[in-house]
Amino acid sequence: MKILSTLVVLSAIFFSSQSIAQANMDKRAMAIADASVNAIGGRENYNNTRYLSWVFFGKRFHVWDKYTGDIRIEYGKGDLLLMNVHTKQGRVWENGQEITDKAQLNKKMNWGYKVWINDSYWVVMPFKLHDDGVNLAYTREDMSLDGRPVDVLTMTFNDVGVTPENKYEVFFDKETKRFSEFAYYPTIDTKKPRFRMPWNNWQSHGNIMLSDSRGEAGMAPINVFMTLPSAIFTSQQPVKTQDGKTIEGAFIK
After folding, report:
1. What are 209-232's pLDDT values in tens digits?
2. How many domains does the structure of the chain reveal?
3. Which of 16, 71, 91, 236 has fewest C-beta within 10 Å?
4. What's this model's pTM, rounded to 2 decimal places?
5. CATH code of the domain containing 216
């Protein structure tokens, strides 16, 4: 009985120590994430930034109204998708002709939503470390691709987004505190990353900082606006700012 009691006590101490270690690890992860968000402008400034535009690896031009959820995706000179990510309703033109078939339009709406989820994450991921359903755990200290000391966190998800089975390792520069690179794993159990890419060329855009370089290619040009004409999200016409200038990166001229 004494042996059994001793084993129970030791087991309790062991699992208690694991819980304490895990709690401390999570606190360390959250502290690093907090410092990173603050280093690029802070969550409040990000939330107050209304419009973003960017080009995803030269393939798709996006304009996103973060307040309303309206998006514009240009994926060719005559290919355009307008939709609201909350209602998943909108319009699509391909080769300059509007798609009116309901089944085909619904398919394009689903495509547009998934594309927006993916492409926007490659731009604003550093501001989404605290989203509901995101798990962060401190993993290790390491060296970045360019030889700088970094802290590494593992990011997993609780049934959020369109690919909740994914896992990331996210790297934070110890000196600047900024998000410096990430490694992508298709599943939680995947041992080796599918890729590891830098987040370089951090630049100020309004009151926040964003990175547009992922190595040989990236998200450039990135632009931030506080006001834009509503026609951008309702019209097939080329996108222009309030003062009539074409937004940099647009495919439709």
Report:
1. 999 999 999 999 999 999 999 999
2. 1
3. 16
4. 0.86
5. 2.50.20
